[in-house]
């Protein structure tokens, strides 16, 4: 089955460049020149990953990302000419799984696409059946279906958020620091001043606590890291 990647960028030259590199790796590309067209495609076609530009007229990439997250957990790689820390944090908070600054190395972009796809889909097939399901009181985590429920109600998580939760829940009582979480979930080398884990952790906690009536599942061990109590 084809892996369909949606490229959302109003710059046709950049979109075409991305398409060429993805095609060389065997991926099928679908292109949209604005946010409205992108959302229509998401509603009508099976899309496995979105490459989304931030700076677009009409509806920018941040708005598109928020709209997608209302319905789907499809991995999103955000592209932007803005390289400030707050710009990256804003992109991640809006629901993106990864963030690249323009101009970017196309080969690095392809590597990140492969990493996101592997985490979101293919890695699910590698765990033994006994490790697929975790129950913590009213919370149920099913790695096979990539789903999380609280009291039977679905909690919509991005692939990164799901990966963090499953990691902590499958090692109850163990404290993971930000470097360990990043390298285990992103499968990349951690670099100094990387706040990706903090941003995703904050968003994950907010979603869980909203459905768990304020109950705190993930605990911070100050100066050390994060854990879920055994």
Automatic annotation (TrEMBL):
GO MF assignments: phosphorelay response regulator activity; transcription cis-regulatory region binding
Pfam families: Response_reg, Trans_reg_C
Broad class of the protein's primary localization: cytoplasm
Segments forming domain OmpR/PhoB-type: 131-230
A single cellular component GO annotation: protein-DNA complex
UniProt keyword annotations, A-Z: DNA-binding, Phosphoprotein, Transcription, Transcription regulation, Two-component regulatory system
Modified residues (4-aspartylphosphate): 53
Gene3D superfamilies (UniProt xref): 3.40.50.2300, 6.10.250.690, Winged helix-like DNA-binding domain superfamily/Winged helix DNA-binding domain
GO BP annotations listed: regulation of DNA-templated transcription
Start-end of DNA-binding region: 131-230
Location(s) in or outside the cell: Cytoplasm
Domain Response regulatory: 4-117
Name of the protein in question: DNA-binding response regulator
UniProt organism field: Paenibacillus psychroresistens
């Amino acid at each position: 089955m084809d892996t369909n990647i949606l490229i959302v960028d109003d710059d046709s030259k950049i979109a075409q460049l991305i398409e060429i590199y993805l095609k060389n790796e065997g991926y099928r590309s679908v292109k949209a020149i604005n946010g409205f067209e992108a959302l229509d495609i998401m509603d009508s076609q099976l899309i496995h990953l979105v490459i989304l530009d931030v700076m677009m007229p009409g509806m920018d990439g941040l708005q598109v990302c928020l709209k997608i997250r209302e319905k789907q957990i499809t991995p999103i790689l955000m592209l932007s000419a803005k390289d400030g820390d707050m710009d990256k944090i804003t992109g991640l908070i809006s629901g993106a799984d990864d963030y690249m600054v323009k101009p970017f190395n196309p080969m690095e972009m392809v590597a990140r696409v492969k990493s996101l796809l592997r985490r979101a889909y293919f890695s699910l097939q590698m765990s033994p059946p006994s490790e697929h399901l975790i129950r913590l009181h009213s919370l149920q985590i099913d790695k096979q279906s990539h789903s999380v429920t609280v009291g039977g109600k679905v909690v919509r998580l991005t692939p990164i958020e799901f990966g963090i939760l499953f990691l902590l829940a499958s090692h109850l009582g163990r404290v993971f620091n930000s470097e360990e979480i990043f390298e285990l979930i992103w499968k990349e080398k951690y670099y100094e001043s990387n706040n990706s884990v903090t941003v995703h952790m904050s968003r994950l906690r907010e979603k869980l606590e909203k459905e768990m009536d304020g109950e705190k599942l993930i605990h911070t061990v100050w100066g050390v890291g994060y854990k879920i109590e055994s």
